[in-house]
Write a structure and sequence with these properties.
- The protein is an alpha/beta fold.
- The protein folds into two domains: 86-300, 2-enoyl-CoA Hydratase, Chain A, domain 1, CATH 3.90.226.10; 304-356, Lyase 2-enoyl-coa Hydratase, Chain  A, domain 2 (Orthogonal Bundle).
- 50% of the residues lie in helices and 14% in strands.
- The protein has helices spanning 14-24, 26-32, 35-42, 50-54, 61-69, 88-95, 132-145, 170-173, 179-198, 214-221, 251-266, 272-278, 290-303, 306-321, 324-341, 344-356; strands spanning 103-111, 114-122, 151-158, 163-165, 203-207, 210-212, 224-228, 232-234, 270-271, 283-285.
- The strands form two sheets. Strands 1-2-3-5-7-10 form a six-stranded mixed β-sheet, sandwiched between helices. Strands 4-6-8-9 form a four-stranded mixed β-sheet.
- Strand 2, helix 7 and strand 3 form a beta-alpha-beta unit.
- Helix 2 (26-32) packs across helix 3 and helix 14 packs antiparallel against helix 15.
Length: 357
Amino acid sequence: MHAAGIVGVPRLSGQHAMHAAGCARIARYLEIERPDMVLERIGWREHRIAAEVDGQGIGHPLGSCEATRRGSNRGIPPARQSAPKLGARQRAKERNVMSRVHKVDISWDRRPGGVVANVVFDNARRLNVLNPPALLDLTEAFLGLAREDDLRAVVFSGAGGRAFIGGADINHMANMRHPEDGRAFITLVHKLCQAIRDCPVPVICRLEGYTLGAGLEVAAACDMRIAADNAHFGMPEVKVGIPSVVEAALLPRLIGWGRTSWLLLTAETIDAATADRWGLVEQVVPAAKLDGAVERCVASIVEATPKSVRAQKRLMRRWERLPLDEAVQAGIDAFAQSVADGEHIERMTAFVNRKRG
């Protein structure tokens, strides 16, 4: 549900109006009241809303948002008490009942040694733009996936075929008036990107149509990007009076400083062929073959051993932050740990026996 006061959104009455007003205040609340803790309280780890912790009750912005994001039509539910920790698959059943405007669907594909999660963000009638409730829903989804021990990979896509994510909700941003509002809203974008990057298994971004602004930052946070030939990419923020920030900082690592400057300073949109040539995406295929290309990538990941894939992603994240000498040492430590885990023995023994045969 969109926040109250956003252009084009009809007025709501009574309790639902309070829900919508709560959504509009989320970003400001996050800045004032410990954003990290708030996200933890509404996240999958605790299964509680911030209102419980802060004693604010159902009138609190985050308390209001929880009901709105779950699409309740039965009035405002009381703040939930601490619940037993549930797996993401059980929680996904609840998450498929979302607001009338957007939803996050999680489906599961059983594979050898685990499962592959398919995450689909659906705000298709508005090019899958991101507002605070959507950002919170997606962040919670990825935090939940991170807890699944048998998870092998995640495929992240946007519904409708016209866009992966068409950017942040400009209607929402146009109503921001104070620096703390902007700081908190963009922190929500960062928290989603961080949850994706911290997911312990590879996240494959399935791209078709438009990927713009915050959407491109989210795509950059994924481990791999596979695009249809109808995809277009851009960072148009400077044209609407703001800089490109947060995970736009990943772009120079993907495409270099010169091409990053071109994208951010000209705000021009590039096509899939250019994105492929620049290294912004790993593969471009005809739209009709996109699912097949994604499946081949998933199959290659699943063919590897689960622990080694997780160890590799974890090590690569450390490489980003460490000087070269320390990065090399981190790799030595990771290698030694993999030997201690023993996952290699069966695979290497089978390989040696095949060579001898």
